Amino acid sequence: MTTQLERVYQYGGDKPKKLLDSWDVATILGIGRSTVRQLVKEGRLACVQVTKRTRRFTREMVEEFIKSETVRRTRSWDVDFLEAARIVR
């Protein structure tokens, strides 16, 4: 089973065949193109500025954004959640 990212982004050996455009990135992330532009403007999503109005993205840039935005649960949250579950029972 292939992921959405793998369907949009195809490989030629170990090098990418193409850069992703904002439509591709928006599809991968499940957001709109305007949100992609906003993330770039805020500096949260890296891009290659091809022309004044054209941006392209590498798979690594998108993966790095996903990693940076991933929220990890802390141990205290786990303990609080388990404690709350015991109280409810």
Automatic annotation (TrEMBL):
GO molecular function: DNA binding
SUPFAM superfamilies noted in UniProt: Putative DNA-binding domain
InterPro entries registered for this protein in UniProt: DNA-bd_dom_put_sf, HTH_17, SinI_DNA-bd
Entry superkingdom: Bacteria
Signal peptide: none
Domain named Helix-turn-helix: residues: 24-68
NCBIfam families: excise (TIGR01764)
Record-given protein name: Helix-turn-helix domain-containing protein
Organism: Desulfomonile tiedjei
